[in-house]
């Protein structure tokens, strides 16, 4: 019988769930009001069998001085006579629900800031697209909220500035501040501009991205002499394009420590830690068509990067990324935190594709990963030298 009787705590729990599910819709005027919460409907038999429980329930709701209106109903029973019972709690607005949930302050702040946004950009009124930003409207500090509005306003007025983020003439806005909010700013600009939405931050803002940099080890002593003896170089793509070293072979290594440990090898330059940016090497005309070797982690992401590298170097040979290596060092494997969703299987050899699909399916264990730095260095160095020699001999 007590399941029929909704106590204060049960009603509050129900309203909290409803608020969490609906407050974004309510913020923009949605929802059906008043919101009516049924409190219970005990029968005469229920009251007779457990009078003390029903009396405590009635006393908790009548008389009512809390938020909302408790609706009552007169019941006439043969044995108990006429009784006034609470039947429902009626709430007139989302603010009243917020009060029940302890969220009034956040609700009022979000509502006030929403109105501030709509006054600045009236075209958004009625669009039904701002409720998703409830947490931003409710929780940003006053300073951060004003900065956000200032950034969006400036970008709307200067859609093709070509400035770096560091150059924005907005007080309190620096690179780190904006980097944390690129998605939010991009979405807001899309809402305000209408038409096709530009989902990429720099495309949407007209700001200039920082120059992409490549780290390169010049393993050949003769090639180092052409750049003043430098062996470890990190430079923008544009600077490296102009370098024109003219090596005889290319080595790509993902792990920074492994790349830093590479020995001198005649005619070879090594590119380190490029990850998915390996495609940048396509801009270096002086490496095009050269024999190439790639060594990355033996996991789904490493093989996906290998597929990207093969678009730049169609004949690139992968090393220590095969099934035999995985089996040999299986005791050194760990779990890959998140697997790559897909790779360009057409760019992989049959053996490489088999390893990728095997890793995805857990053929050797769930999310298995062999990090390249776990392979003993003497074995790795010998394989690097051998693979470069083979590639050079093949050309």
Biggest sheet statistics: 6 strands, mixed
- Architecture of the largest domain, according to CATH? 3-Layer(aba) Sandwich
Helix and strand pattern: HEHHEEHHHHHHHEHEHEHEEHEHEHEH
The radius of gyration over CA amounts to 33 Å
DSSP helix fraction: 40-55%
On the 0-100 scale, what is the average pLDDT?
A: 92
Tally the beta strands: 11
Oligomer: single chain
CATH third-tier fold name of the largest domain: Dna Topoisomerase Vi A Subunit, Chain: A, domain 2
- How many DSSP helices? 17
Give the CA-based shape: elongated
Provide the low-confidence segments as ranges.
none
Question: From the helix content, strand content and strand pairing, which structural class follows?
Answer: alpha/beta
Q: How many domain modules?
A: 3
β-strand percent reads 5-15%
Which CATH C-level class of the largest domain is it? Alpha Beta
Spatial order of the strands forming the largest sheet: 5-4-7-6-8-9
Terminal residue distance: 86 Å
């Amino acid at each position: 019988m007590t399941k029929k009787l909704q106590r204060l705590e049960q009603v509050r729990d129900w309203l909290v769930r409803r608020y969490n599910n609906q407050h974004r819709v309510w913020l923009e005027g949605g929802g059906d009001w008043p919101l009516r919460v049924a409190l219970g409907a005990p029968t005469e038999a229920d009251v007779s069998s457990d009078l003390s429980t029903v009396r405590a329930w009635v006393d908790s709701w009548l008389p009512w001085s809390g938020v909302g209106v408790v609706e009552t109903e007169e019941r006439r029973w043969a044995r108990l006579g006429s009784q006034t019972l609470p039947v429902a709690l009626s709430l007139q607005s989302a603010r009243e629900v917020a009060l029940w949930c302890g969220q009034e302050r956040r609700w009022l702040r979000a509502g006030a800031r929403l109105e501030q946004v709509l006054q600045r950009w009236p075209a958004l009124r009625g669009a039904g697209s701002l409720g998703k930003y409830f947490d931003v409207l409710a929780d940003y500090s006053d300073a951060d909220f004003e900065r956000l509005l200032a950034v969006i306003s400036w970008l709307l007025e200067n859609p093709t500035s070509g400035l770096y983020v560091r150059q924005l003439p907005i007080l309190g806005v620096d690179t780190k501040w904006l980097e944390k909010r690129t998605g939010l700013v991009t979405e807001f600009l899309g809402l305000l501009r209408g038409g096709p939405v530009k989902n990429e931050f720099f495309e949407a803002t007209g700001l200039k991205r920082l120059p992409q940099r490549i780290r390169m080890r010049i393993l050949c002593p003769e090639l180092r002499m052409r750049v003043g003896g430098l062996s470890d170089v990190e430079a923008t793509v544009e600077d490296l394009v102009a370098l024109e070293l003219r090596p005889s072979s290319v080595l790509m290594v993902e792990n920074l420590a492994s790349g830093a440990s590479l020995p001198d090898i005649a005619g070879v330059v090594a590119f380190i830690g490029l990850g998915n940016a390996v495609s940048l090497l396509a801009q270096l005309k002086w490496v095009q068509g050269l024999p190439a070797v790639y060594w990355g982690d033996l996991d789904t992401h490493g093989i996906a990067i290998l597929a990207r590298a093969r678009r730049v170097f169609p004949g690139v040979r992968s090393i220590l990324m095969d099934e035999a290596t995985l089996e040999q060092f299986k005791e050194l494997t760990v779990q890959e935190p998140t697997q790559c969703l897909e790779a360009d299987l057409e760019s992989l050899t049959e053996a490489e594709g088999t390893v990728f699909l095997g890793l995805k399916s857990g053929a050797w264990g769930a999310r298995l990963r062999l990090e390249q730095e776990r392979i003993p260095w003497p074995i790795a160095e010998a394989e690097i030298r051998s693979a470069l020699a083979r590639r050079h001999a093949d050309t």
